[in-house]
Amino acid sequence: MKKIKDVNDFNFKNKIALLRVDYNVPVDKYGKITDDTRIKYSLPTINKIISDEGKIVIISHFGRPKGIFNKKYSLKFLIPILSKKLKKSIIFCPNVIGNDTKNKIKYLKNGNIILLENLRFYREEEKGDEQFSYILSKYGDIYVNDAFGVSHRKHSSITIVPKFFNKKCIGLLMKKEIYNLSIFFSKKISRPVTIILGGVKISSKLNFIKNFINIADYILIGGGLSYPFIKMDSGNIGKSLNNIKEKKKLIQEILYLKNNIIYFPNDVIAVKNGNFNNIKIISINNIPNNWKGLDIGPNSINNFCKIINKSKTILWNGPMGLFENNKFSKGTISIAKEIIKITEKNYAFTIVGGGDSIYALKMIKSIDKVSYLSTGGGAMLEFLEKKTLPGINIIN
Ligand code: ADP
Ligand code: MG
Q: Once rounded to an integer, what is the mean pLDDT over residues 158-164?
């Protein structure tokens, strides 16, 4: 891959950077931010542009407002936290499009930062609309993409807006993500390489698994991701998650190729008729009809940890069970602790990505204890699968 330009290749003095970030941060039911990693990681790029005496128009999305204004998804809540972290005032612009916005941008002074409202209040954002993108492109002199977590999407602000710029580059977070994840493409990667996958987003993870059978030494599959495989392999999974639908062929293909690389749990923590007080440990292949597997069992934890322990490079995405409930969190937390243990002993290089996996690390106060924390879930897996992303290609 040819060297991609980043913010250090430009001097932003007297220039306006149109900066796409990913401030789609997790919030609790009161709208309070539960993890500000994505905001923290966006600061180096902002600081570089400001120290050049440039101006910044920040654009981002948040949640899924589906193309209409919805107070719940307004980006205004970011102003206090951003001002505090950057130690300067930030101008908020309640519209993405309009004369008021144009004027506010026109009168920006060097060192000023303006945050525009949620891009997804406009249907055009997710549609990759040329006209919408053209209007946005007039807001800046240099386009900067630092939104790794959405760079697998062909949305206006990711792949269409940059088409209208001569000067464009990636930000420092994007650069760091590419650098760290590219370890998996290097011939010098330390082996054994172990991939741990779980969670529920099976469709986005299957292609990745197939691809990594050729790269990894071990692939451990747990959580909601494991049951469709067990079922396809003639096991009884009872009421456990089984959202395969059109993906049957791919699952069969993976099962056919899996020899000695892919490992599944052998026991699970299951509940009867959805009653969280009626719990037992059973074989994953023989889950009775009214029972549902919600975590990996002690035997599986043991087997997975043994493999983690002998690994030199580890990538983890997706929890091993319904870890938000402490009755079903032991599998996920045990795996997380084992990963941290070998990282701290300097035995392995470890990468964790995905909103829920990061949340699991946060539960045990260990966010900064892995070698690298990726801000992308889907984006991380797609980057590893394709060695690039649509949002990176367009800069190149
Ligand atoms: P990530 O955000 O780390 O990429 P996903 O979004 O794919 O992970 O999946 C996370 C969700 O999967 C969590 O809400 C968790 O409760 C759920 N989950 C994992 N295993 C199971 C299971 N066996 N049954 C039900 N839900 C599960
Ligand atoms: Mg998730």
A: 98
Q: Average pLDDT of 272-286?
A: 96
Question: What phi and psi, each to the nearest 5 degrees, are found at residue 329?
Answer: -100, -10
For range 176-190, the mean pLDDT: 95
Which residues are part of the catalytic machinery? 38, 201, 355, 378
User: Model-level pTM?
Assistant: 0.94
Tell me how far CA of residue 48 lies from CA of 28, 158, 167, 353, in angstroms: 31, 21, 17, 26
For residues 38 and 22, the answer to whether their CB atoms sit within 8 Å is: yes
- Omega before residue 192 within 30° of 0, cis: yes
Distance between Cα 382 and ligand 2 center (Å): 15
Q: How far apart are CA 103 and CA 304, in angstroms?
A: 58
Q: Provide mean pLDDT across the span 220-233.
A: 96
In angstroms, the Cα distances linking 224 to 7, 197, 249, 283, 296 are 40, 10, 18, 15, 10
If you average pLDDT over residues 262-284, what whole number do you get?
97
